[in-house]
Amino acid sequence: MTDLSPIIKAYDVRGVVPDQWGEPLAEILGAAFVTVTEAGAIVIGHDMRPSSPGLSRAFARGAASRGADVTEIGLCSTDELYFASGRLGLPGAMFTASHNPARYNGIKMCRAGATPVGQDTGLADIRALAEKWSETGVPAAITEPGTIGARDVLGDYADYLRSLVDLSGIRPLKVVVDAGNGMGGHTVPTVLDGLPVELVPMYFELDGTFPNHEANPLDPKNLVDLQAKVRETGADIGLAFDGDADRCFAVDERGEPVPPSAVTALVAARELAKHPGATIIHNLITSWSVPEVVAEHGGVSVRTRVGHSFIKQEMAASGAVFGGEHSAHYYFRDFWNADTGMLAALHLLAALGAQEGPLSALVGSYDRYPASGEINSAVADQAERTAAVRAAFTGRPGLAFDELDGLTVTAADWWFNLRGSNTEPLLRLNVEARDTATVARLRDEVLGIVRA
């Protein structure tokens, strides 16, 4: 029996092309997706990777073979695909491997209204059908084949985003954007068109081989060019997008990175101004500043596990207006609870442009505590090393332990979280405290145990 577990993960399809998968499997997955979702029509988009057009067209053929009418929106960001799914009311499939190297590709799938398809919400069934049909072939459908047509939604996507954030009265801003040769180079010019923004583009040429640097702004080395350009041009702000442009990172006028937790707190405050008393979601690795700001602005904060499926589930269950993660994923109720870095960027521009001070001063009130950032350690046994850390801190007075996601240990003036990667033999450590010396001390103590 074909085993697709190496490429069909908890939330998406991801693997090396053509070594692990290619167009024949994409066609089968298209047929399986339509069968499991019982969709009469779907929407498909793809990023700029060399393999993406062929894979997405094969998926479309498979979907049409099962009777579904397919709307291809072509080159797009992941959040543009979510927009199309929400606006058109159709299940969707986005062909991208986000920030992974060029040889990778994948599929992010959703039901109508951008509701995610994960392991427990259809992806396991899609995998089971695809494994079976890889052996037997896709059975002939009893319905007539569906149609495949094209539609451009970029303008509608840009108009919708701008309708959610009032930028009409902002002062002129100079904005450097590093698209990393990813889909931000396609979407940013249209979204920012007509706004009082002087755009300084970097690496806007769509190139899925990523010739300048990886399209992964979470890694500090991929922000170096942006930081230098902001300082060189005297820009007010720098923005960096990942490969499929669903995540957005910011640097201030000095070229210093703005922590995603500070962006989460800032956007939360803005959303609470529109929706008094509303709920805000944040994962357990975001800064203490996030629930503090939410409380100060009269909102209710809900702490969740790391991962978009948990955030989106909690968004739907609680009716939250906004959710943020330390990885710069930002989720909005007004955007079908889906993540969109572009909308978060517009909030940043609106907040910055509404006052005269620099971005560093604006975010200072939201960036309150020193933190270690995420530190990865390769380990042979995640559970054994985590247990060793827990044992080392057990019995110390004034500590609270929880295992919502990995191990979190909290004291009056610090906390740390240690959690295992789902895909690699790694433990990820995050530390936050009220002073840098405590961050360094805790970081070194925990890493000393983890790496012993």
TrEMBL record:
Residues 8-134, 156-255, 265-369 form the Alpha-D-phosphohexomutase alpha/beta/alpha domain. InterPro entries: A-D-PHexomutase_a/b/a-I (IPR005844), A-D-PHexomutase_a/b/a-I/II/III (IPR016055), A-D-PHexomutase_a/b/a-II (IPR005845), A-D-PHexomutase_a/b/a-III (IPR005846), A-D-PHexomutase_C (IPR005843), A-D-PHexomutase_C_sf (IPR036900), Alpha-D-phosphohexomutase_SF (IPR005841). Gene3D superfamilies: Alpha-D-Glucose-1,6-Bisphosphate, subunit A, domain 3, Alpha-D-phosphohexomutase, C-terminal domain. The keyword Metal-binding applies. Pfam families: PGM_PMM_I, PGM_PMM_II, PGM_PMM_III, PGM_PMM_IV. Keywords: Isomerase, Magnesium, Metal-binding, Phosphoprotein. This is Phosphomannomutase/phosphoglucomutase. The lineage of its organism: Bacteria, Bacillati, Actinomycetota, Actinomycetes, Kitasatosporales.
